[in-house]
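CORE FACILITY INTAKE
Project code: CF-77B
Contact: R.S. (postdoc)
Sample description: multi-component assembly, three entities in total
Requested service: structural model of the whole complex
Turnaround: standard
Below are the sequence entries exactly as provided by the requester. Do not edit them.
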Amino acid sequence: MTLTGPKKKDPQKRTIVPTLPPATRSRAGLGLSVAAAQGRFALQHCAECGAVQYPPRDACHACLSHDLCWKDTQPYGKVLAETRVQASPDPYFRERLPWRMGSVRLTAGPVVLAHLVDVRRGEDVQVELRLDRAGQGVMIARPKERSDDMEDDPVLRAMGTHPKHRRILISDATHPVARPLIDALFAAGAAHVFAGVPEMWRRPHGVSALEGLENVSLLPLDVTDPQSLKDAASEIGGKVDILINTARHIRPGGVLGQDTTAARDEMEVNALGLMRLAQAFGPGMAARTADGVNSAAAFVTVLSAHALSPDPAFGAFNASQAAARSIAQTLRAEFAPSGLRVACVYTGPTEDEWHQSLPPPKVAPKTLARSIVDGLQKGLEDIYCGDVARDLAERWRSDPGLLEREITGGGA
Amino acid sequence: MTRAPYDGVVLTCPVTVPYVRYSNETAHWWIARGLRGALDAAGLKPAQIDGLSISSFTLFPDTPVGLTQHLGLSLRYLDTIPMGGASGVVAARRAARAVQAGDADIVACVAGDANRIDSFRQLLSAFSRFSLDASYPYGFGGPNATFSLIMDAYMAEYGATRADFGRIAVAQRANALRNPHALMKKPLSLEDYLGARMISDPVALFDCVMPCAGAEAFLVMREDEAIRRNLPFARIRGTIERHNAFADDPVQLRGGWAMDIDTLYAQAGCAPQDIDLLQTYDDYPVISMMQIEDLGFCEKGAGAEFVRAHDLTIEGDFPHNTSGGQLSVGQAGAAGGYLGMVEAIRQVTAQAGPTQVKDARLAMVSGFGMVNYDRGVCSGVAILEGAS
Amino acid sequence: MSVLDQLTGALAGGDVRVVDLTHRLDPDFPVIVLPPEFGQCARFRMEEVSAYDHRGPAWKWHNLTLNEHTGTHFDAPIHWVSGRDWPNGAVDEIPAEHLIGPVCVIDCSAGAAQDDDFELTPEIILEWEAAHGPIPAGAWVLMRTDWSLRAGADYLNMAEDGPHSPGPTPDAIRLLLDRDIRGFGTECVGTDAGQGAHYDPPYPAHFLLHGAGKYGLQCLCNLDRLPPRGAVLIAPPLKIRGGTGSPLRVLALIPGGSK
């Protein structure tokens, strides 16, 4: 089955109001969402007896230990039983019936209920944790071999943020990622790319390479200029299905060594710019999250992994990244009722003029582009691009205090 | 250790408050009517009872504690049985022990629930933590989806067909047509059953119960008290109760009944062939079929063959769910867990009227309740005997 | 009748006209671009504080972000290192009477149309004096290039070797300083030529003018409407404590007969 592009909208029909699948979870249950946001398949394991738990709980079902930890788990199993739900009192599923689900016995032990994607009773499957439209982690059972059009399955499409047939706004076409990102988005089936150009009057570097590309429209857009955002949003706001914020102002330097001029510019672009973008495009996108094949799906922003813990050599910039991350988290809460996903792409040092003197590894624009599109295809919220970002995030999760001391030079 | 018999304790005054599909009345209202009906049948005033056992999903924010003030009852035994379809059996066996021990003289067991428009969806949406975390996000099919998976696995495992389950539903409808209180009043043919629209494959429309409002009640007292008041009564020959049985079974193809059935027959001093009528918990026909197996009426997996070989109607060779069961009477929340118990008391005390099974003396009542995640967790069985 | 009565009468009657030499402050109006590792001139930005709404029911207003040197602006002596110690060299210290005065306009538009790097040389100034008389002491001298008709990238005219726009040579500025002018103004983004960094001294207009306590005006427009001499320039910057310059509204009074 291959998903076909949307027909032109009937202007006499009301746009479908977004509904969400059940969103309430227990505290333990939220662990599934945390794992799904990062694309991990993690379940609770008992630290004492090793029993794998599901559904999530507060004490081990085998030995009553309360020491349960979330660990990556073998994501395989076999479908025990299946059904097609054809009646549901829940408005979200009612609009999407029939809905295929079933029970899967994991090789790790537990039986999970899962959304079924192209698998039947008795089949060996791979299980993934994905975020659903309510932003909560859910089990997906799918064939072990991933097929090209697997993501076209209505179950995955309904919960995902895949670029296929969607129209994407890249906020800053002068970012080195712009060109490879455009290529990757089209390779993933995107319908159109709008690329914002700040200070169009300067004819910024790199933008001319995008002129005349098929299905790419350049438009003036400067995240520091409310009027330009207003103008852009009134022109294309109703057509933006995925927004990828690439606007970035970066200068090296810590806090003591300089005044706040560069820091202010960084805050203006990186933090407040994100806010302005969300204010200009967010409400329109949030209203369109159930708008058919090319419904609005995701609001993505690119951040330095040092948003989690600063590198003093880029102290002021990292402060803006931490602020942007915080803003993205608030946006996630604010967009939650609409089902619009907010994704943060955390990258290590990028291969550009501002990191020129740094040793490798550095993230090439192509790699960053691939990470963004891969994250969109999997519907992730936390996307880590490159070894530096992955490593930093892992250390941050395990001990933020230790990470800070390691970065600031305490580590031998 | 040998389990003590239920000597000297009886069940009496079975009452059904006729069900309605939707009602604005509250659980308090329905429970009060059930209680009043049982007291009226016994000729008792509220002050004359000292025990109360309540099962209800819709009392919130109250618990049965609130009901004591609400209904003006001063009690020395107050119980709440939150076991859904197993509530009737569990309420009876616990009240019986309290009365037997002298902790209470007369215990009223009442189950009742409201059903306003949309209250079923709301009840579902907060039914259990495991459901919130691991069941509702997958299509929100409620118990229909859960039991479709059980039915799918059961059919695949044992080769049962939809028509086999249809026989159970069709026979119950025939029974229900004799029960004036049944909400389903149209005859049901096997063709109707097979042709019904799918709800969650393979569960179709007539595999499902209809949520409604209503109440059921009975009294538990000493046998001498019942005789003094000239009340027809039933004795308890034996009971069992089990929760979270066979937790390692990947799919629920058997219930807790199978774990303890031998001790039940041992306590009751009888065998399956002695049972005159069976009341199973029929939230879905597949569960009734599972009970027929697990209660020892046939081998595991032979349920389909059994229902093909037997007539499950009131006048048949295997009278089953004689009131029409929840499938045809309706499911009034927790009262659904009392339906079989109240009907069985009526049957063995020859008070069942139009649904009366001739010469019914021994009745088996089976309960099953509470889909916490992927299966029903609670089960219980009682064997009742009329006092002839 | 007093002189001022005569002036107001002439303004009302059209014998004296007012010409606006100011560009609109607009987020897209170009500002000077320096190598990225240097501090940058803030672009003009305007954010709504309220607009007759819940943030302020009966009024509308904006917060502005801009540099002292954004848009049509005034350069004070302390803007440049050479003028850092000049007494009263900040915008708030400049005597008010310095802010109104005579203005001479040297038309270089024909040359600038031919050559993006057109230079104002002493020869051109002397030629102008031959035609219009000596530049009076205390006069503003404006270099007309019609550069203000350009917009966006063409205005900065950046190439890989930097911007290309007309401006004065060091000797031209020295000559103007000999004439004891009040200040020098251009239509370009700075008083110096786009390639002014390559003169000796670099950026001679900035270096020499401010080192001599003189003022600068840039991003002017409508210079084509001024007579070569005889107009009065009104150019008061905002009174910013220690300010090195200021966006401002530049007006010229011209005789009613001129175009």
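Facility notes:
- Residues 30-159 of chain A form one domain.
- Chain A is about 30% helix and 20% strand.
Invoice: internal transfer
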